[in-house]
Design goal:
This protein is mainly alpha-helical. The protein is built from 16 helices and no strands.
Length: 376
């Protein structure tokens, strides 16, 4: 909406020529971040009070389920969850204010966030209603995310101008695609990216501010990647795929960064509110789709390194437990508990120590990911 104000500078008096800045993505991206941050601070306490009044308290796994971890996490029972509605709300509001409304990819990204947020809200609601940590089944989540992948694939493959590039598979460090045409497997690839990103963020959201902080670094990195992918000169110089619509997604990414900073104000230890699956699934789906829109899907493994580590730790733990149960008749564990942040908690690390160290790792992963742009 604010983008159109730059037309005021055309042939206008000098004092109106300042409106020319509204056409620049960089200016609007920063403005979107600041707007989202301020909106989060303004409405944060209201959302928390509303969640408390609706009795949307976070159920905590019982002592029988998690043993020693209950001693560390048990006090968090009843903390309002579903705080992701705040993140989603301010990202949508800030994006509608600062992003160009004629960019179809912006609408795809906002749709993704609302769609995944609704899926997460359903999950959170069932957990609260049943007062346990079960929620919806993994199969239901995967089906919902698969439908989203199909929608994203239709968006790309139905557009003759971008469908050829969309079917290609690029990897970091190489300027040419390693597979020029994935064909029907494009949909499967998109599904893997979206499911992987969404569920990885969901698994990371286990300590106060952990997923929120990692979202900030990943969001900043992808705002840079989106801007580069949408600028023909920069894309040609860096030898990365060019998508004319991608630059505007930097505004939406920075809206997510600002919203995450604002949410972290209330979510830092000790948290006054949790984002719940409402927020984590929405953020993960968002990151997966923006990676597809930048044609930097596999780079998300590097930039979102902490999310990947968390997800892989769960995969390793479950796989090893099942294998050893078949072989020895008793399941054995690689980690004291997964996701891996709980392993370090049980090793004696303070919660804040785990969080800050994982944030540091997230910053490093984001910097490494951005550095790959020149290593081609």
């Amino acid at each position: 909406m604010m983008y159109y104000l730059h037309y005021l500078s055309s042939g206008a008096p000098d004092f109106l020529k300042v409106a020319n800045v509204f056409q620049y993505i960089t200016f609007r991206a920063v403005a979107a971040a600041v707007t989202a941050f301020l909106l989060s601070l303004i409405y944060g306490n209201w959302v928390i009070r509303k969640l408390i009044s609706l009795k949307m308290g976070q159920p905590i796994r019982t002592k029988e389920e998690v043993h020693k971890l209950f001693e560390l996490q048990g006090s968090k029972a009843g903390t309002p969850t579903m705080g992701g509605v705040l993140i989603i709300g301010v990202v949508v509001a800030s994006s509608l204010l600062w992003a160009r409304p004629d960019n179809s990819a912006v609408w795809l990204l906002l749709f993704t966030m609302v769609y995944c947020g609704a899926l997460g809200f359903w999950d959170d609601y069932l957990k609260v209603a049943k007062k346990n940590s079960a929620g919806i089944s993994e199969r239901t989540k995967l089906i919902g995310q698969g439908i989203l992948a199909l929608i994203v694939a239709v968006f790309f493959l139905s557009n003759p101008a971008i469908q050829v590039q969309a079917r290609a598979l690029y990897v970091p460090f190489y300027k040419e695609p390693i597979i020029s045409n994935l064909g029907i497997f494009t949909i499967l690839f998109f599904a893997i990216v979206i499911m992987g990103a969404s569920n990885s963020v969901n698994l990371t959201d286990g300590l106060d501010g952990l997923a929120t902080g990692c979202t900030i670094t990943t969001g900043v990195a992808y705002s840079v990647l989106a801007y580069a992918a949408g600028n023909m000169k920069i894309a040609q110089y860096l030898q990365i795929p060019f998508y004319p619509f991608a630059g505007e997604l930097a505004v939406v990414c920075m809206a997510l960064v600002g919203a995450s900073f604002g949410f972290l104000w209330f979510n830092c230890h000790p948290a006054k509110v949790f984002m719940g699956d409402t927020g984590s699934l929405a953020i993960g789906g968002f990151l997966g789709v923006v990676a597809i829109c930048c044609k930097q899907e596999l780079l998300l493994v590097v930039v979102g390194g902490v999310f990947v580590i968390e997800a892989v730790s769960v995969l390793i733990q479950r796989t090893w437990f099942k294998i050893t149960k078949r072989v020895y008749g008793e399941g054995r564990r690689v980690f004291l508990m997964s996701p891996i942040h709980h392993h370090f908690e049980l090793k004696g690390w303070k919660e804040n120590t785990v969080i800050v160290r994982f944030w540091i790792l997230s910053v490093m992963f984001a910097l490494i990911g951005l550095a790959t742009l020149k290593l081609r």
